[in-house]
Structure to design on (195 residues):
């Protein structure tokens, strides 16, 4: 089992005062020495802020605009007019898709990632002999751009020779009960449409 390493970055916000605090006793409370030390460490503080800003601004979680576009280029997911928030989800989904082995759990996780719905609101049902249906439940239908993007993304990553049906459902809508209805999860009281 692979163990994940977590790296915690802590920004030092005052190198100058830290350097003054570390002076040895004979040099403490000497204004000229302190001023010289503050002048010497000013460049260190500027470098710290620049480096920390670069590192933090290029992580996927915090990247925006051009930095986010570069993430998309790296993983092979074009922006296509998406907002930063939507595009970030598709980049995360593409990362998962690039390393997936086409299991049902992975498809559920990928659809959950790109749609941003909570865990448990994405379901998968097998359609034998060679297909499956996935559906997800959320508050409002996607606009056409997001709807088409989700459908295109999932069709792009599905295995060849397997049919796939994706349905988007709206929670809270009154609907009839029909156990086993395969095109939309009406038995959960939702209204759905195919993506």
């Amino acid at each position: 089992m692979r163990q994940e390493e977590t790296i915690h970055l802590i920004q030092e916000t005052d190198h100058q005062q830290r350097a003054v605090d570390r002076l040895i006793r004979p040099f403490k409370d000497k204004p000229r020495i302190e001023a010289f030390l503050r002048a010497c460490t000013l460049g260190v503080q500027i470098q710290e802020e620049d480096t920390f800003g670069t590192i933090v601004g290029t992580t996927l979680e915090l990247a925006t605009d051009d930095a986010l576009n570069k993430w998309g280029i790296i993983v092979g997911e074009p922006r296509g007019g998406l907002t930063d928030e939507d595009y970030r989800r598709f980049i995360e989904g593409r990362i998962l898709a690039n390393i997936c082995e086409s299991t049902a759990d992975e498809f559920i996780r990928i659809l959950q990632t790109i749609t941003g719905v909570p865990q448990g609101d994405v379901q998968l049902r097998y359609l034998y002999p060679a297909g499956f249906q996935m559906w997800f439940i959320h508050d409002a239908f996607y606009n056409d751009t997001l709807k088409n993007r989700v459908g295109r993304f999932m069709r792009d990553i599905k295995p060849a020779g397997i049919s796939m049906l994706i349905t988007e459902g709206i929670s809270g809508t009154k609907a009839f009960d029909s156990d086993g209805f395969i095109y939309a999860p009406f038995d959960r009281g939702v209204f759905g449409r195919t993506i």
Notes: The helical segments are 15-21, 31-57, 65-75, 84-99, 104-115, 144-157. Residues 180-186 have pLDDT under 50 and may be disordered.
